[in-house]
Amino acid sequence: xYKQKRTARALFIVFLVFTVVGLISIVAYQFVPQLKDYHxxxxxxxxxxxxxxxxxxxxxxKLISYNEQIRSLYVENRYNLSRESLFYNYTMFEKRINKLTxxxxxxxxxxxxFTASKRTVMRNLYRNGTVTQLNGFISDSLNEILSHNKQYxxxxxxxxxxxxxxxxxxxxPLNKVQDIILNIQKEIYAIVARNDLKVxxxxxxxxxxxxxxLSLFECLDNALTARDYSEKHFEAETFYSDDLRKDASLSExxxxxEAIKNNEMEVYYQPKFxxxxxxxxxxxxxxxxxxxxxxxxxxGRFLDKAEISGLIHEIDMFVFKRVCEDLAxxxxxxxxxxxxxxxxxxxxxxxxxxxxxxxxxxxxxxxSTSLIQIEVTETTAQANPFMTTSILKKLKENGFRILxxxxxxxxxxxxxxxxxxxxxxxxDKTFIDGLITDAKSREIVKFxxxxxxxxxxxxIAEGVDKVxxxxxxxxxxxxxxxxxxxSKPLPxxxxxxxxxxxxxxxxxxxx
Length: 511
Hints:
Elements: H1 2-31, H2 39-81, H3 90-101, E1 110-115, H4 119-124, H5 130-147, E2 157-162, E3 165-170, H6 174-194, E4 204-209, H7 216-232, E5 237-239, H8 250-261, E6 265-274, E7 279-291, E8 295-297, H9 303-309, H10 312-333, E9 340-343, H11 346-349, H12 354-365, E10 372-377, H13 378-383, H14 385-397, E11 401-407, H15 416-419, E12 424-427, H16 429-432, H17 439-454, E13 458-462, H18 467-475, E14 480-482, H19 492-501, H20 503-510
Helix pairs in contact: 1-2, 5-6, 10-12
């Protein structure tokens, strides 16, 4: 800032000197007769001098305008970070990148975008200044992590604070980028603990490679998209790929919204058969869209669009409410009642209102929590093990049984089976499909069953279609079978009729 003031003072002096010289030349030309003989030279000097004065004045005006811009940048950073610095502004960020790019002509580069928590948390806590304080500490730490770390060169980075998020532009290779993310993640948790900040902290990172055919803003937008995907799917970091931008059209969203409004969603029930007791012991609730235009649609045809468009909450709550209402109706009729397992999206499971929402429905319908089982996919459970453990504990304390769905399909941390309070594990259909012909699949299924038994968990095999699969699973000590071999998913009336008249329990009774 001192250099800028000194430059402004110098330009002002130059402007005065040239203006004075120009005026003297014009006056001398008018009132000194001897100079009339040199009028071309004198007039030319006067004009040149005035020209220089005009240029000096233009530069002075530009510098004054620039200083006004600088002052506005200070105000912006003071508001966001409680820091008076130019370094964290997007304008300076662009200028620094343009400068650094000349030094790294052949190097690849990446953009990292991150926040210390969810967008909603960050926005809400602006009101009491906690987030501003936290962001200020993070900006200080970035200086330490990036600028003063002996592992890195200062010319390897540019960074800023942009629309509520920190952005880092780096020329380091991908493995170094992952190291940076890990260091920042650790530092954010340390900052919160060190300063006793009352803020829910869970950092989310998005990374995008800088592509030559894209502008800086487009590459930055890719990183922001990846960060948003991380938050939505409760992943610590996401590397951008074009398929993250899949979207539902406006007409599709409106069509789905109308379907929910017009009660076109239905709940089907698929029975579960216990091999040891030879009885049906429960069922899974599965949503269907009974569309007047397309017919009966399985969830794979529309749930992705519901998640993208933000309608998944309505569908999750519709299914849970309908299950509770159906159970209450069965109780009133005095019919056979079996526990029902209900799936929830990752969005719903990690929602702050999840437990309150299901509790309200339970209380309103009067259904016992012993009749409700909550299914959580392995991917959801692994997204945030700490939160998952806390949520599962609360659910179990209130009488719900917990099932891990799609076990073996995701990137399992087998140690979490000990820490997370699952009652039952469902082995994914992809392993069941190869039971008859593939020895490797049989060994994997046997291993998974043995692993679950060691942890005192019941085992369900889903997607069982053939009697040969049932016999293999019986020998492997599998507890429960779910699949088309016993029954396809059924509407509530057909499901109740099936429980009364199914051939499997009658066959076992006859034997």
